[in-house]
C-alpha cells in the first residue's frame, strides 16, 4: 500500500500573465513555457482590424463590435477593456475549462488587462518582461524592420508609460539573454507551484 | 559607455527562513544554499544546555539566563521566544549587517520564530520543509539512531502540532528526494530575487 503523502496540492492550473513592451520577446518566452509546462495560451478577442500577417484564432479572434458587445452582455469575458476605440477581451469559457483541468494558462496581455486579471484572481502570477534598456528595445524594433519609425516612436512611448505600472506585477524579468530570461520565468512558475496557498490538504 | 540598465534591483540580502520537523533535512538543504548563494546562516542563541555533539557558536550560542535577559533589555534580538523554560533568540546585529551588505541570510528556526520574523519583515521568505509522510519522518528518526523511542514520539508530536501553522509559510517543499528538494528551494530563492518589490529604480 502506498503511504499517504503528507502534502497534497491543488490540481488547478496556474494563471500566468505575461506583459511587456512590443518587441521584448514575450511571444518567444510564452512558446517555451507552453512547451515546458504543456500549458495553454489564451487568445484574446478584439474588434480592431487584423494587421498584415496576423491570423484569426491565432493572434486574436477578430470580431465585429456588435459581436463583441453581445458577448459582453452574455458575460463571456473574464475581462475586457477599450483602447483607441477598439475592444480587447479575454474569453472566459476556455480559460476556466483549462484551469479546472489543471492546465496552466498563459495570458499575453497588456497592463490594464493584467490589472483586471489580478483584481479578479488574486493568485494570478503577473510577470513583466523588460528589455535591458529602452535603447536596446528601440534597436530591436528597428532590426525587426516590421514597423515604421513613427510606429516605433509610438510603441516606445507606450512602453515608457506602461512601465509606470510595473508595481502591479509580481515579478520582473529582464530579457537580455533569451535563454536566461526563459529559465527565470520557468523558475518563477516552478516555485509558484510550491506556494502554501496551493496546498489542498495535509495528511497527518 | 555602458547603457543604463532599465531595471535596477535592490542590493539588500534576502531573509530566508527555513523550518520543518527534526530529521527532515533542513540542515543539509541550508548548507547547499550557503554554498550556492554565498549566503550566511544565522546562529540562534539559547539558554538551554548543549546536547551531545553540539558546539557553541555553531549549533547555537549557549548563554546563561542572565546574559540572555541582558541582551533582551539591550534590544539585541530580532526576535526571541521561550519554550519549556528555555529562551531562544535570533541575534540582531549580524543579521542586519549581512542583509545590508547584500548577503542572503538563512534562519533555521521553528514556527513561532518564523511567525515573529514575518511580522517584522514582511518580505522575509518562509519555506517549510515537509517530509513525504509522517511515517517516513518517523523512519528517518529511527534510522538516524540518535534519539530514544520516547524522544522520537515527542518530536513526532511536535511535528504534528507545528504543521497546523503551515499557512504562515510562503512555500512548502517536500523532501522526498534531497536533490530535487534542494533544487526547488534554489528556484524559490532565484525567483524571489526577481520580485517587483525588489526593483529599486527604473531608468527611462
Describe this entry's structure for a reader.
The structure is a homodimer of 204-residue chains. The first copy, chain A, is of the alpha/beta class and 204 residues long. Chain A has a domain at 7-42 and 104-202: Rossmann fold. Chain A is 39% helix and 22% strand. In chain A, the strands form 3 sheets. In chain A, strands 3-8-2-9-10 form a 5-stranded parallel β-sheet, with helices on both faces. A 4-stranded mixed β-sheet of chain A has the order 5-4-7-6. The mean pLDDT of chain A is 92. Chain A binds chain B through residues 3-7, 128, 130-136, 160, 163, 166-167, 169-174, 184, 187-188, 190-192, 194-197, 199, 202-204, and chain B through 3-7, 128, 130-136, 160, 163, 166-167, 169-174, 184, 187-188, 190-192, 194-197, 199, 202-204.
Describe how the helices and strands are arranged.
Two copies of one chain form a homodimer.
Chain A: E1 7-9, E2 15-19, H1 26-37, E3 40-41, E4 45-46, E5 61-62, H2 65-73, E6 77-83, E7 86-91, H3 92-100, E8 105-108, H4 111-120, E9 125-130, H5 134-144, H6 149-162, E10 171-174, H7 178-192, E11 199-202
Parallel strand pairs in A: 2-8, 2-9, 3-8, 4-5, 9-10
Antiparallel strand pairs in A: 1-11, 4-7, 6-7
Helix pairs in contact in A: 1-7, 5-6
